[in-house]
Specification:
2 helices; 42% strand; extended
Length: 277
């Protein structure tokens, strides 16, 4: 009996020790969200970070707007009419998130959790060589009983809008995605399959491989920005080439006239010489 009691005591101590180690490791891997929007000079833009062990592991900068359709009762009290609510992601939102080696996520909530935007990221290999990260899912939870944005909503309550088979903002691993142009996603809501529009602009995002605290890695510009930059610079390049062609043409013409003048016979300047001609 004494041995049995001793073994039970030892087993209990081992169990407590294991639980203590697990709890300690959980504390060591603690992750917290931070709202840094006050650092942005753009009043519509938010800056949000997720940190692990005091180091930034995920960071997002963007301005986000939502277009959310909802039903209201018509004046006849029978028919339903679809209205649209226009929302913007506020700078004072609350942040939560998770970091990992191949999966990460950020949750942005406001108005006492009446609204929550969740973005999920994954990192994967493509063509067995190139490693990339991307948006794998976007979810928006909204409450139509929140009367400041949903006026006279019919049958108000919480709804969830989700993306389907999403693969967006594909970016090489170790780099941040940068895009000034607006990027638009359409989510399907549990509210009678309505389409919720999420429009993001002035974007810089990096969910993996951040080397310096609060500092993005090398940017990867979106195709839209590259195209717009080309459209801006192309007229200047063409104008420069046209001016260069005109300059070369005038220079060649000038030398041609000079060479032709040298090859023509010269008339004598002394008029007395005309008698012998």
């Amino acid at each position: 009996m004494e041995r049995l009691g001793f073994r039970t005591l030892v087993s209990g101590r081992v169990l407590l020790c294991v639980l203590g180690i697990l709890a300690r490791s959980k504390v060591l891997a603690e992750q917290e969200g931070e709202n840094l929007s006050g650092l942005s000079t753009n009043p519509d833009k938010g800056i949000y970070a997720v940190r692990e062990n005091g180091t930034t592991c995920l960071m997002v900068e963007f301005a986000v707007r939502f277009v959310v359709p909802y039903d209201v009762l018509a004046l006849n009290g029978i028919d339903l009419i679809t209205e649209q609510s226009y929302l913007a992601l506020p700078r004072g939102a609350e942040i939560e998130g998770k970091c990992g080696s191949t999966e990460a996520e950020i949750h942005i909530s406001w108005k006492n959790n009446a609204y929550t935007l969740r973005i999920y990221f994954t990192k994967e290999f493509r063509d067995q060589e190139n490693e990339v990260w991307k948006f794998s899912k976007v979810q928006f939870v909204y409450d139509t009983s929140e009367t400041s944005n949903f006026i006279n909503a019919y049958n108000p309550g919480k709804h969830t809008a989700n993306s389907h088979h999403l693969s967006a903002l594909v970016t090489p691993a170790g780099r941040s995605y940068v895009c000034q142009a607006q990027q638009t996603l359409t989510l399907i809501s549990t509210d009678h399959q309505k389409g919720v529009t999420v429009a993001m602009s002035d974007i810089q995002i990096q969910p993996f491989d951040i080397n310096s605290d609060f500092i993005f890695s090398e940017p990867f510009k979106c195709i839209t920005d590259q195209r717009e930059r080309l459209e801006e610079t192309l007229p200047l390049v063409l104008g420069f080439i046209l001016c260069l062609i005109i300059g070369i043409t005038l220079t060649v013409y000038h030398f041609h006239l000079k060479l032709t003048a040298q090859q023509q016979p010269q008339l004598p300047r002394d008029r007395s010489m005309y008698k012998n001609m």
